[in-house]
From TrEMBL:
Name of the protein this chain belongs to: Cytochrome p450
InterPro entries: Cyt_P450, Cyt_P450_sf
Gene3D superfamilies in alphabetical order: Cytochrome P450 (1.10.630.10)
Annotated transmembrane regions: 12-29
UniProt superkingdom: Eukaryota
Keywords (A to Z) from UniProt: Membrane, Monooxygenase, Oxidoreductase, Transmembrane, Transmembrane helix
Pfam families in the record: p450
Length: 138
């Protein structure tokens, strides 16, 4: 014998539960330390799920113009952009990049760089840095 439920699941229950779950998830996500630190970097306002995708436009020229000229001038050479749930910190001034690139202590590369290994091989771009424990002082 099968036990059947007397509760009728209507679309109203489904959408209500989905809205409650998404609201709870979004609230806890925006309160995380990582998100607060990234949002402390100046940058354009972003939408909750889309980030800055609508601001960037759908053409390459619009994307390039916003990232290299408009936002670089507006936010002073370093700014953050949200691409859906993935934050990107753009450094547009060579003076700001020099201490980072000339440092002997560089962490691991992002996992997106693994996609370039097939094309670039063991180039300087993919070279892993020296950890603090193995740093050689001359």
């Amino acid at each position: 014998m099968f036990i059947t439920s007397t509760i009728e699941w209507s679309p109203l229950y489904f959408w209500s539960a989905l809205i409650i779950l998404l609201t709870t998830w979004y609230w806890t996500w925006t309160q995380s330390r990582f998100v607060r630190l990234i949002n402390a970097i100046p940058g354009p306002k972003h939408l909750p799920l889309l980030g800055n995708l609508l601001d960037l436009g759908f053409s390459y020229d619009g994307l390039f113009r916003k990232l290299t000229f408009d936002w670089n001038k507006k936010y002073g050479g370093i700014f953050r952009v949200w691409l859906t749930f993935h934050p990107v910190v753009v450094v547009g001034l060579p003076e700001m990049l020099e201490p980072i690139l000339s440092s002997r202590i560089i962490g691991d590369k992002p996992k997106e760089f693994k996609l370039l290994k097939e094309y670039l091989g063991d180039s300087l771009v993919l070279l892993k840095g020296i950890s603090k424990n193995k740093c050689i002082h001359l």
